[in-house]
Design goal:
elongated, about 240 residues, about 45% strand, 23 strands, seven-stranded antiparallel β-sheet, single chain
Length: about 240
């Protein structure tokens, strides 16, 4: 069963919407997927992007803003029972599928393996050396996503550069890979035919790329870009 939104106002349920499209818009205009006919709602107020079992909410520069669980957001990774507030209207996000990548489950899906690209003599034996081991919850974390069909494209890789997990790498073989620490900093790596892009999704502070903070727009990655995310420095490169 697809995730869904329950629209209500003043405690009364108005309608239920299944998130069965990759992108659904919320707004006052009649062409929106979820129409809320109220002057407090912008024409195109917000959008929800859904990949497999993960959904991301984005405010579309609305006049009155969008809140989740009482906090104003620009982008937000939705979790089961999140409450979206748009004006006087409430949209409750429901996703009870067991394979949903909730914040608590992120660490169970993160797989970094030892890379041959870094040969540091002082590097101590790593307890996460075997493929399939889960890395520390203090490190960036991964949400499962859909595979890309273009097998000819070089595979992008992010590799940890510092800390106890230095040398670990993650191949970005999915069309969308979510990395970060929920509530602190979260980004999405997107694999497209034209290359790899990074987009800030959640968190008040923005991650850095080559020493400069990202903005709200997708940023195309170049080989050997250095990304600083949730206190972890990593390098992006392409693997033949």
């Amino acid at each position: 069963m697809a995730a869904k939104l329950i629209l209500s106002m003043n405690g009364g349920v108005l309608r239920e919407y299944a998130l069965d499209k990759e992108r659904m818009t919320i707004g006052r205009k009649p062409h929106c997927d979820i129409v809320i006919d109220n002057l407090a709602v912008s024409g195109e107020h917000a959008a929800i992007v859904t990949i497999l079992n993960d959904s991301f909410l984005e405010d579309l520069d609305s006049t009155n803003g969008t809140s989740v669980n009482g906090t104003a957001i620009k982008r937000h990774f939705l979790q089961n029972n999140d409450v979206i507030e748009i004006g006087k209207y409430i949209l409750k996000y429901l996703n009870d599928q067991k394979i949903q990548s909730t914040a608590a489950d992120f660490e169970k899906t993160m797989v970094f393996r030892k890379s041959a690209r870094i040969a540091t003599p002082s590097l101590k034996a790593d307890p996460y050396e075997m493929t399939g081991k889960v890395m520390s919850t203090e490190q960036p974390q991964l949400a499962l996503a859909e595979k890309v069909s273009d097998s000819q494209q070089k595979i992008g890789v992010i590799q940890i550069l510092i800390g106890p997990n230095a040398g670990k790498e993650l191949e970005l073989v999915k069309s969308l890979t979510t990395v970060g620490k929920a509530g602190l900093q979260v980004v999405v790596f997107t694999r497209r035919p034209s290359g790899y892009f990074i987009t800030h999704v959640e968190g008040a502070s923005y991650p850095n790329r080559n020493g400069k903070p990202l903005d709200d727009q997708p940023c195309q990655l170049n080989e050997h870009d250095i990304i600083e995310l949730a206190g972890v420095k990593m390098e992006f490169y392409l693997k033949s």
